[in-house]
UniProtKB/TrEMBL annotation:
This is L-threonylcarbamoyladenylate synthase. Its main location: cytoplasm. NCBIfam families: L-threonylcarbamoyladenylate synthase. It is found in: Cytoplasm.
Amino acid sequence: MSTTSYNCTNDEQRAAALEHAQKAIAAKQLVVMPTDTVYGVAADAFSPQAVATLLAAKGRGRNMPPPVLIPRIGTMEGLAVDIPDDARKLAEKYWPGPLTLIFHAQPTLDWDLGDTVGTVALRVPDDQLALDLLTLTGPLAVSSANRTGQAAAQTASEARVQLAESVEVYLEGGFRPLEGTDPTPSTIVDATGLRLRVVREGAISLEDIKRMIPSALGPDVEPEIWEPANLAKAEPAAEGQEADAADDGAAATAAEGDAPAEPSADTGDTAADDETAAEAPADAEDADGDEADSGAAATEEEPEPVTLSKENPANAAS
């Protein structure tokens, strides 16, 4: 595979870079891009092949799915269901920005981000180059641009040292967040339970979250499981089985054993490893961009079947 790097601080190269990056994503190839936290490695969220390539490039398995970066808050409606009002309030205040939200994924979507348990971690990055690319491509699965266990890349050049020719296009936009500063991962909030729960504190503190949402839980509090109304009076489970109380699949909030793995800081498998989107139920902030890997769970009502194509979710959000 040939690899091309562009200096996106140069207007002429920037235009050519975005065009090449858009074509690479369409061809199921990988692109390294800056975000407001660290650099992320991106793939078409609706291409299982592309997502598998991303995971392989980072050296991780399906148990660490990447989060999804979106161009605008409205795109959330096409990718998630059962969105709590409190989560909407946080999105309206902090997006674009370092906040990753974990939701139940829209069940009608044709995608495979890994072992997400029916959830998805979403974030709108506060970076113009990233937003310009997302506007051209639609939702992208993004994880921090580094090999798992290695330091998160703060420039495209640093990312290239680790990812080499596994990536088709490198978009160099300078240091992220700023030269001489350490990367701070996004804050990951699980919105799949009875109450919002901060899975990981990052750029936005728990205190800031609780100022807006007093009922929000901290990462050290046992999550409360949501039980769909239509299962409340269900007959006892068959012998040898435990009744699935409810949100048995919500990523990052289920009871011990039922809950999906918590997001790995995505875009930073750790705060740094995946801090672009989020690796929580979804790699919630993998690249912080990674900052958000996803997973899913049962919903109170089965939504009416909706046929959502790859383009629809992104466009529905305008």
